[in-house]
Amino acid sequence: FTRQADSVRSSAAVGGEIRRSQPLIRLPPTRIDPDQVPRPTGYTDPVEAPGGKRFDTDKYVMPPAADTVYTVVDRGSAACRFHRLTTSQIPATPQLAASAHVPVALMAQPLADLGPYEPPIPLLDFSRMRDPVTGEGTLPPRCSRCKAYVNPFMGWVAGGSECFCNLCEHCFELPRAYALALDAFSKRRDLNDRPELTRGTVDILVPKDYWTKAPTTPIVVLVMEVTYVAVTTKVVSHVAKSMRSLVRTINTPGVEFALITYDSTVHFYPLNDSKYPRLRESMLVMPDIQSPFVPAPAELLCADLSQSSKRVAKTLESVGKRFEKTNVTHSAGNAALEAAVELCNAKGGGHILIVYATLPDVGVGAIEASELAAVRQSALESEKDKGDRERSPASDEVDKTLFSFRQEAFYRRLFAKCQEGGVGVSVFCCPQPFAFIDFATLAEISVKTGGRPHLYSDFSMAKDGEHLFRDLERSLFVQAGYDCQVKIRTGKGLFVDKLYGPYTPSNPSDPSQFNCPRIDADHAFTVVFRVAPQQRVDESKNAFIQCAILFTSCIGQRLLRVMTLATPMTTSLSLVFRYTDSDILYNVMQRRAADCVRARRPFRKELMNLLAEILHSYRLHCSSTTTAGQLILPESLKLLPLFGSSLFKQAAFRPHGARADERVASLLRMIRMPASWSPAATYPRLYPLYKRFATSRTRDREFGIAGLWTGILDNVHLPITLACSAEKITTDGCFLIDTDTVLWMYLGPELDPEWLREAFGVSEYAQLDMRATEDVKLIPEEGKISEVIWRVVEQVRRDKGSHPHVPLRICTHSKVEENNLLYIFVEDPMGQEMSYVDFLCMLHRQVQSKIE
């Protein structure tokens, strides 16, 4: 970027005057300096070592920020990749918890991906330990009272034949094969050889006593729409081509694949035709779409990809040719989905990838036009004020039509089948431009079964092709568990009070346990604890939480993952605030809001009151000596008002300015969002890449070293991050905006022609404006600015770790996308919501009124 400084300075002077750039919008002045309010901006420290900073779980008090690069070493307590608390100092009494108003909650991501420099989770097999008397295999040792599994914090008594449970403080007898004499320090002699006694997270290969059915390798079923719309929008050809390239890379033995297509009927393809050579390259048509069934044995329709990948690829290639001249417009998508569930159940469970291009309008589960009349009207109301950013009174009403779903009886019956068989459903909705596809209905089965709902609004190959391919790839290769059973156990003083997530507790009165057909590495859920009275508070003791998840792995093993977390308890209110994690607290607030919307309950007043109560408590108990008129924010929670202001501007909660399907997609993403996704999704990161008329001082401070190598692997320096406001976007610049789901690149109309030529291969801005937005591409060329920009884009993606692919989209001036871009800037007033500075003032008034 800096090597163009001379040409930029010469072009900045026109007629003896220095030209100044214009911001995208101008906001009215306020009494408070916007640059003085807290926000997560500034220079991003580069990674200083491969894998980032190292954290030992027995040493850190506060875990590293969830969206940073780090390596965790498990020293007995579960790593923060799997468990994160809203506060790392648990209030020891219910009175203290009530005074703080900070909800004590755990965000769990039980199958999260490990960092590249972290050791794998130990796999244990207790069945190999034989009882010396009976000769039978040993079950995983656990407490006879609370059923907690043995972990590093349990003690040993009676010479090693009994164990003291750290959760319920009960002594229980160990299996004879597991008992062992203690050393002089009352520790087991085989301590270093027992990962379950030194690691906070372990996997256990469970015996048949834990089986409800024999575990099998989950199959993959692709269900693809082949109607006229799906063919003409190239959804069929692209999905078939993508899957052809992906199935060739699956070499895990035992992973089977099946293919189903549908239009007004449902079609099956014999992929394992070695026993039936006459059926080779044939297609079986199932016309009964009211009572769908599988028309052939499951063994005929499923092929082992490690042996038949070429056969599967050839069949996928034939699908595009077979339907390229179709004129069928009706879709029996839900009939095909029900048949796919039956096929998965016959094979013992699996993962269904279903692609919709239109609404299923015939067959079982069809969504009729009469059902959608009210929804379409609500969708029009949601879009009609798009672009209106004027203030109006905020409403606490929830759109009860938009977030409800149709065909409830059908989906309830289908979910029961998925739950029984361990079947997860991932939905890929690819509607044609300006089409409404009722994402709330189609995605509901995906949310409940642990799949992933995907929406590609106004689908086009140029815009969404790579994104769809990457999502299909991640759905196939992400770490996942099937037929999952989850149980949260707590030590004395804590009780599970509420579960936030798309899951239903096994017992309505006990939210600590639930079942789910599928959970993958991108799934997170939250439990809120209630602090119970204790007879005696000992601050030297820890609070213990153990999460156990029983699941079938992708290679057909029935595993039990046990994660044990130890965290200090305190009687000091100041310590509760000091060790509060604002990212996790916001994540809990976000899930609470999403839960209210799905239940069609108001949420705004509840969350505003929670924010005011937390800040009032800190002001009253921890900062009483400061000036009465000041708004005092604890260091750990200084960004909480910003997150609160941004929450109400998310697409899911805005009454106007977003399409109905996009609002639903935003809401469904929130209820399963991991902690590492929340910061950028809440407060988008704004990076300046270039400013034509910037002074040398501004250039050096903001993006002078951007794109230069740091010397650590392939990492490069990132530009400074600016306040997420449209006032920071200037017409002479290029800016990168990370919203966690999309990387937007804004190109201002006053960019330097020489810079445009090196970055995008055009000599003037008008050439960009003449192209469709999706046709503007960043193609890195060695030695040119485009290569440096590409390095920055790749670094932003790399810092997200195992995050799903984030597409890059380019926005130019005066295009429709520029108006959509305004809804990204969460510090600005937006529709019914006030600006961040005004929100902070309003929150200050609420806190002040409580003090008075």
UniProtKB/TrEMBL annotation:
Alphabetically ordered keywords of this record: Protein transport, Transport
GO cellular component, one term: COPII vesicle coat
Domain (Sec23/Sec24 beta-sandwich): residue spans on this chain: 481-570
Gene Ontology biological-process annotations: COPII-coated vesicle cargo loading; intracellular protein transport
Entry-linked Pfam families: Gelsolin, Sec23_BS, Sec23_helical, Sec23_trunk, zf-Sec23_Sec24
Keyword Lipoprotein listed: no
Domain Zinc finger Sec23/Sec24-type: 140-178
MF-aspect GO terms: SNARE binding; zinc ion binding
Spans annotated as Disordered: 1-58
Gelsolin-like domain segment(s): 718-777
Sequence ranges assigned to domain Sec23/Sec24 trunk in this UniProt record: 216-475
Annotated Sec23/Sec24 helical domain residues: 587-675
Polar residues biased stretches: 1-10
Family as reported in the entry's similarity comment: Belongs to the SEC23/SEC24 family. SEC24 subfamily.
Protein name in the entry: Sec23/Sec24 trunk domain-containing protein
Source organism of the structure: Chromera velia CCMP2878
